[in-house]
Amino acid sequence: MTFYEVTFYVLAVVALLSAILVITCRNPVHSAIFLVLTLLSVALIFLQLQAEFMAAVQIIVYIGGIMVLFLFVIMLVNLDVAVRQAPYNRQRWIAGFAALVLLAEFTLFIYQGRDWAKLPPAAAEAVQPNTELIGRALFQNYILPFEVASLLLLVAMVGAVLMAKQR
Predict the structure, then answer these.
(1) CATH topology for 1-85?
(2) Confidence bin at 127 (pLDDT 50/70/90)
(3) Is the pTM here over 0.70, yes or no?
C-alpha cells in the first residue's frame, strides 16, 4: 500500500466517523464541530486528488461561511426549550424502511455497476487546469449570477445580524 492510499483511507474513516457523530451527538455545538471535522477531511481528500480549487471552496465556503451560520443559529435558538420538549420519534419505522430501501439500492448499484469501473484512462492532453477554467467561466460567462448570489448572501448576513441585535 502506498502513502497516498493509506492517507485516503485514514481521511475516509475520519470523515465517516465524524459524520456519524454529527447525527448521533445530543449537543448541537459538538455536532457542528464534528461537521467541521467531516468537511475538513473531505477538503483534504480533494487536495489529495489534486483538486485545489474544490478544497479551497470547501474550506472557505463550507467551513468558513456555512459553519459560522450554523453556529450563529445554534446560539440564537433557545436550547433549554428544545431540550424540555418531547422527542418526536413516531417516524422511526418509516426511517428504518427508508434506510432498508436505500441499502437495497446501493447493493443493486454495486452489483450491476461492477463493469462500469473498468473505464479507459483519460488522455494526458484532455486534462486541463480546473481552477483557471472555473475562474474564466465565473468571471466572463456568469458574472451577473455570481454577483447576484454574493449580493443575496450579503443581504442575508446583514438581516441575520439585525435580527440578532433586536433580541
Answers:
(1) Four Helix Bundle (Hemerythrin (Met), subunit A) (1.20.120)
(2) low
(3) no
